Amino acid sequence: MLLLVDAGNTRVKWALARDDAALGDWLAQGAALHDGLDAAGAGWIEAGRSETGITRAIVSNVAGPAMRARLAALLGPIDTEWFASSAARAGLVNGYREPERLGCDRFAAAIGARALLPGQALVVATCGTATTIDAIDTDGRFVGGMILPGLALMAGALARNTAQLPQAEPGATPPPLFADNTQDAIVSGCLSAQAGAIERAVTSHGAAACIVSGGAAPFIAPALKLAHRMVDNIVLVGLHAVLLAVTASGGSSGSPVGDKA
């Protein structure tokens, strides 16, 4: 049984898959805020125990050393890879100037996008606490990308740094572009900024295919004026692709890997 963990700035996402499962074919999955991590960990260990037990885990962690320590305590003796960006992995070449400095979540998301749509020019937008928008070329090279404040951070910055603007949150239905009230005007502006950055990336990358993921994706995707594919937990998809590539190669990745627990 494989355990995939994506520890982000706000939430920890996880999934369980059988060793021979197809990409993204998960037995169970979930997410928890950092404060709820212990309960989530108990849940995934119990879910794994109900099958054959978790024999291997892979973790993408951008939440810092304290989060790593908490996860390590939960994982205990499970054989764990702490996924890290490298020059190449699972069919993707890392074109970052210093490959190891690329966020491991961005690298995993790019690997997942490439695995889902091989041989295509791609833009993958992960919309969470921050929004990252990255490009992959047809040869499987991570070209680079952009990072901007996420939807909630944008709205929160206006509320914190202005005297009279409220904290605005998107609703189930997007507001009109030219809103007739302040709440909707803030939401419209923030959604337009997010969608505009994604659309610019896709156009600049030669009308590439577009994958959108992340907690804010359901709000941002309807604002896009281009074809796109919504994928839940693209980072977990990428981590799964990494482990499948290791299995296919007989247990060796053939490239630098993250350190072991």
Automatic annotation (TrEMBL):
The keyword Transferase applies. A monovalent cation. Ammonium or potassium. The active site is at residue 105. ATP binds at residues 6-13, 129. Its main location: cytoplasm. Its EC number is 2.7.1.33. Keywords: ATP-binding, Coenzyme A biosynthesis, Cytoplasm, Kinase, Nucleotide-binding, Potassium, Transferase. Its cofactor is K(+); NH4(+). Substrate binds at residues 96, 103-106, 182. HAMAP family: Pantothen_kinase_3. Catalyzes the phosphorylation of pantothenate (Pan), the first step in CoA biosynthesis. This is Type III pantothenate kinase. It comes from Massilia niabensis. The lineage of its organism: Bacteria, Pseudomonadati, Pseudomonadota, Betaproteobacteria, Burkholderiales. The gene is coaX.
